[in-house]
Amino acid sequence: MRSNDKLRKKAEDLARNKAAGPSQNEQSRSPEEAQQLIHELRVHQIELELQNEELRRAQSELDAAGARYFDFYDLAPVGYFTLSQQGMIMEANLTAAALLNVARRDLVNQPFSRYIFKEDMDIYYQHINIIFETATPKTWESRMLNKDRTTFWARVDGIAAKDADGTPTCRIVMSDITDSKRTEKELQLQEKRLRLALISSQQGWFDLDIPTSEVRVSPEYVMMLGYEPGEFNTNLQGWIEGMHPEDRAAVLKVFQECLKTGEIRTMEYRRQTKNGNWIWLRSIGKVVAFDAEHRPLRMIGTHADITERKRTEETLRISEAKYRALIDNLTVGVVVHGPDTSILFSNTMAQSLLGLTEDQMMGKTAMDPHWHFFKEDGNPLSLEEYPINSVVWTGKSLKNLVRGVRHQDRAELVWLLCSAYPVFDEKGQLLQAVVIFVDITERKQADEQIARSLQEKEVLLKEIHHRVKNNMTVIYSLLNLQASDTEDKAARAILEEARDRVNMMALIHKKLYQSKDLAHIDYKEYLQNLATGIADTYQRRDVVVSVDMESVFFDVTVGIPCGLIVNELITNSLKYAFPEGRKGTIRVGINKDGAGNNVLTVADNGAGFPDTVDFRNTTSLGLQLVNILSGQIQGKIELVRNAGTTFRITFPGTTEH
Question: Coil, helix or strand for 498?
Answer without folding.
Answer: helix
